[in-house]
Amino acid sequence: MKSIIYLSALVLTLSACGGKKPAAETTDSAVNPNIVTLTAAQLENAAITTGKIEQKEISSILKLNGKIDVPPQNMVSISVPLGGYLKSTKLLPGMHVNKGEAIAVIEDQQYIQLQQDYLTAKARIAYLENEYNRQKDLNQSKASSDKVFQQAEAEYRSQQVLIASLAEKLQLIGINARNISAAKISRSVNIYSPISGFISKVNVNIGKYVSPTEVLFELVNPTDIHLALKVYEKDLDKLYIGQKLVAYTNNQPEKKHEAEILLIGRDLSADRNADVHCHFENYDKTLVPGTYMNADIQVKNTRAYVISNEAIVQFEGKQYIYKVIGNRQFEMTQVNTGESENGFTEILSPAKDMTPNAVFVTKGAYSLLMMMKNKAE
């Protein structure tokens, strides 16, 4: 009977000792919930690789947005210097016109009057020239007074100025003074396109009277389009003339357009940004002025502390890496990250215990995170 009691007590004692070990492990985990300990089998299944944080040259990508613009010399507003009635035009927005092509016909009685004034002035110049030469000869022989000679000279010179000014006015409205005569007076003038391009706006209709200040048509030459980007003040020092970039639209983000910075504005707007003008390497007809575009600019390389992208995990809106603290033991450590390039991510604020000899998980970090979450549950 005593033997049975002794064996029962021994079994109860061993059972009590064996039950204390899990309690100790639970206590250790409760002390630091960011530490995870793996068994040898778990470590092998997780396929964990370790390494150190290292320094590498890494470049950052500056993301900007803007729209396609056209330089002033490639945008033309067509007006009539003397006004008139629109007699005819076939222009529609989107039509292409060539430089020197007649795009509209304007008529008005003032064109007739201007040609009449020119021909009349030209006809009278012959008489004034003869009178001037006659008075000059008489004055040299003292047969005429200086006053009469000077008056003849003044009238002759004034007529020359009048003819020259009338000829310029005719040229301004598109009439060559040498092509008109008493038998060739026109009441209408042609409006010619000063550039080759596309019609962007048509502001008039046939029969309408247009004043000299009114814009009839607007033309755009898109062959020299450029990209106007908005850059905040803090990023201006990262850019330089000749810097390369790639641009793309929201509709076709996969289609990249190479460009180069031509001009960096120094006049800041109320929003503290400046315009940066870029020239496309190749002209693309699908790019229309006014289209909004995004741009990626690779700024200067900097030396930074980096770690493999697979070493970083996200949990509850924060980023972590795992530090090796012992045999099969890993501690989850919060970090702030920067730019990523070629499979590595910049660590902006390394923890204090990230010494040069510290070892971290570089592959399999998400396996550790899953184990910690399952353990917590």
TrEMBL record:
The keyword DNA repair does not apply. InterPro entries: MFP_Cation_Efflux, RND_pump_MFP. SUPFAM superfamilies: HlyD-like secretion proteins. It comes from Mucilaginibacter rigui. Keywords: Coiled coil, Transport. Residues 111-169 form a coiled coil. This is Efflux RND transporter periplasmic adaptor subunit. Belongs to the membrane fusion protein (MFP) (TC 8.A.1) family.
